[in-house]
Amino acid sequence: MKHLDKLYKMHDISWFTPVELFKPWYAYAIAASILRTANLSVPLKIYEIGGGSGTCAKCVLDYMMLNAPPKVYNNMKYISVEISSSLAEKQLETVGEVQSHLSKFTVEHRDATDIAGWGCKDPQPCWVLMLEVLDNLPHDLVYSPDQVSPWMEVWIEKVNGSSQVCEVYKPLQDPLVSRCSEIVGMNEENPSLREKLSFAAKGLVSKVFPKPRRAWLPTGCLKLLDTLHQTLPSMSLIASDFSYLPDVSIPGDRAPLVSSKKDGKTLDHPNYLDAQGDADIFFPTDFLLLEQIDHHCSGFSKDQMKRGAFKPVKSRRTIILDSAAFMEEFGMPLKTRTKDGYNPLLDDFRNTKFYLSVPTHNKK
């Protein structure tokens, strides 16, 4: 903890990602999981969305160079899709520490959610890595004044042309927000008798004790997975992120942690409207919802579950693992174990999970 505190004061940033703190072992586990399950009869292609400083890319390439058959390393491609120009340059610098990596590595400076940047659909197998990406993707806030009223979009407007802003509530009209709310099941159609009775009871209670509801929808995640499934239909996905965040004071389901860092000290904001300038915004990832969005974007929908229809067949196999379970399965946890048995890689990131999603042979 003293070592971490020193690092944070030196760099004056809010947090280090696990792949940075535990290099190379964290990325080695990811590389091992790819090598164990990849089809090595075709050249290995890995995309990383939001590669940070390039640590994951370099470590994965290191692992392949040291452990994969020479043919796999020599023919592989590792493409980083990075929206930040400064980080794109940093990634080339990091990976370039090993000269032979540079012929396998490229950085594409663009927005991964923009489908135009991906070009034509690529049906070949590939891997997509997203490490601590989901927590930074845009979310949309929706609001309801009580337990039964329809959900509304939350808009931000300036107060009389000043720098102050306030919330304004409007009916759902954004297609991405509407789709996301349907996937979440916020506006279920054809409710059962039990749900109708529950709704009626809530209606009575809401008149006496109205309780406003707020929810943050991962619309950025929906847009990104939509793009990836359309352009890379045979991709295998590995995503890791925070499943919950401690001490969140902002109201609403899946509400973010908004914080600023100065002189090594963190200040958490009680209101997301304070997140102006250099504040960091972290959203927790609902991994079960992530799985639903993934299946939805791959062509599987709740409509296929209607009575009388044939049993629906999903085109993805998915699994959610605690980070410790993933590291014990694919990594080398002894490398991060201290003398007294404490292991920060396994013990300090209990609020993080891995999501793995691979294509099946079931085609529509």
Automatic annotation (TrEMBL):
<protein>
    <recommendedName>
        <fullName>Protein arginine methyltransferase NDUFAF7</fullName>
        <ecNumber>2.1.1.320</ecNumber>
    </recommendedName>
</protein>
<keyword id="KW-0489">Methyltransferase</keyword>
<dbReference type="GO" id="GO:0005739">
    <property type="term" value="C:mitochondrion"/>
</dbReference>
<dbReference type="Pfam" id="PF02636">
    <property type="entry name" value="Methyltransf_28"/>
</dbReference>
<keyword id="KW-0808">Transferase</keyword>
<dbReference type="InterPro" id="IPR003788">
    <property type="entry name" value="NDUFAF7"/>
</dbReference>
<comment type="function">
    <text>Arginine methyltransferase involved in the assembly or stability of mitochondrial NADH:ubiquinone oxidoreductase complex (complex I).</text>
</comment>
<dbReference type="InterPro" id="IPR029063">
    <property type="entry name" value="SAM-dependent_MTases_sf"/>
</dbReference>
<keyword id="KW-0496">Mitochondrion</keyword>
<dbReference type="GO" id="GO:0032259">
    <property type="term" value="P:methylation"/>
</dbReference>
<dbReference type="InterPro" id="IPR038375">
    <property type="entry name" value="NDUFAF7_sf"/>
</dbReference>
<dbReference type="GO" id="GO:0035243">
    <property type="term" value="F:protein-arginine omega-N symmetric methyltransferase activity"/>
</dbReference>
<comment type="similarity">
    <text>Belongs to the NDUFAF7 family.</text>
</comment>
